[in-house]
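Supplementary material to the annual report.
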Amino acid sequence: MVTRDTVESRVFGTLRWVVIAGLLLVTLFPFYYMVLLSLRPIDKVVSEPGKLWVAGSELTTSTYRAVLRSVGDGGQGFPQLLLNSALVSLATVALTLVIAIPGSYAVSRLRFVGRRQVHFLFLAVYLFPTILLAIPLFVLFTRLGLRGSLGGLVLVYIAQTIPVSIYMLRNYLTTIPDTLEEAAAVDGATRLQTIRKIVLPLAAPALMANALYIFMIAWNEFLFALLFLVERRDRWTVSLGLAQLSGGIEVSKTTLMAGSVVLTIPIVVLFFAAERMLTEGLTSGAEKG
Amino acid sequence: MSTTTRTREPVAAQSRRRRAGPTLRQRENRTGLAYLSPTLIVVLVVVVLPILWTIMLAFQRIRLINVRRAGLFSEYTLHNFTTVLQSPGFWSSLWTTLLYTVGGTALSIGLGLVAALALRRPFAGRTLARAAMLLPYVAPVVAVTFVWKIMLSPQYGILNHWGTAVFGWDHPVAFLSQRESSLFGLPVPTALLTVIVFEGWRYFPFAFLFLLARLQAVPAELEEAARVDGATISQRFRYIVLPQLGPVIALLSVLRFIMTFTKFDDVFLLTGGGSGTEVVSVRVYQFLTARFDIGAAAAQALVLAAVLVVFLIVYLKFFAPRLEND
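Predicted assembly:
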């Protein structure tokens, strides 16, 4: 006799692999297609859009040359944009961490007035639409002449990433036992020394995950870059440059895909290099439910 | 900052020694505030003040041209709100935002749950599969929206190519530029649905990560005991696993709802707000950049935030006890 249990085991056992295969298809295919299109000549794409495997002889790198050549040479000048994006992202990471480390330490270790209320402040950052923040910042930066400056953009990114950064670090710090710090204090270390020599080394994995997450947000950000930098081509980030590229008439879709690949590769490489750390850093503390 | 507190300390300590010195608790209080102050300053300058200013702007008649003259003491008026609330398309855009948010939230959490359950037990290549699942969330929004646009294009899109060549569609579907089409005789908001599916695709990794982490913490003994008692897979999921996931799902719903409700990039990049996908954020952007009407843009953004707050209050009223112990 076949029991309900064996039927279910068999059904779900098969279903599981179907689901995994389906999920892999929908997550990976767009990226494969992006790379494939970026390497095919546009006329071939239009005549045979369904082709999924292409002989090596048909491939071209002209799209990448068009994207990477400087504007003066008739290209899109992406190296400059990559540099802008890298500068903005790295500055955001460094400054956010410098501000978030003492902040998260305070929230996780020190009792002070208003500690419980801090969360409400952070919630406000996410509760109000970014577009709502964008309006006054747009006006303010116009007045201060900060529009078109990468520094202004970094400032906004810091404010956007600090709450989540403090939240992640705090979750990690609460898992480090206090006794180590107490021992250091007994040995006469000041609080800053304790943080630098004991807490930071212990929190290194969380810091790396955090840095990666902030980098990802800054690298991928689009709205503020669009609002603040659009008039200054030499200051564009890659995301903005690519979006502006799509508005151009003579830019082919395959070139657009080459630009997308150039934009995506740095973040994906970084991500795969540190995937474990990121997933664990982001969700540590979530187990408690 | 650290140096100033350190140099000042002896002087302060001397003067205080005559009275009772600062207690450890007082010192901890001061250090805590000092450590948090850079964060507070940034959030105050770049978030709190702008929000207050938006509220002010919403009650003033300001366009980009006269923004330099506008100040704290300009005339206050409800004009913007009456214009916005009566303007054609505002209420429908709020409705679109709601549909988009509910659809996107539900789809991303549903997909995330399915993915987490499928990848729960170890198998060869699981680490790689897990990393692949996260790609849509990690990749830049500009890049992925462009691939989607190209894949869905009615002229050279691969989906329409396969659809017409293999699945026998009568004609290509303009997924992103068609307001409505009929499926089995029912009207379907094509573009809005596509945008919702995109939202589910892009954000299911977020739910997947949290749910997988929670699943791994479900004690094996519980399920083992249920299995011994003869509970089938679906029963074990329904009565053992799902209750354990409840709080995480509730938290994810709130987070995704807030983030999707105010989302701008995805819809803006996919459709530009056309074909019945105009969410309020995109509308605000258009008021700001095309009409330079700062006052009306601010008023709309405020209405959006207010609606979100109302939803949250309703949610907290009904589900608060569960979030309390978080």
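The longest strand of chain B covers residues 181-183.
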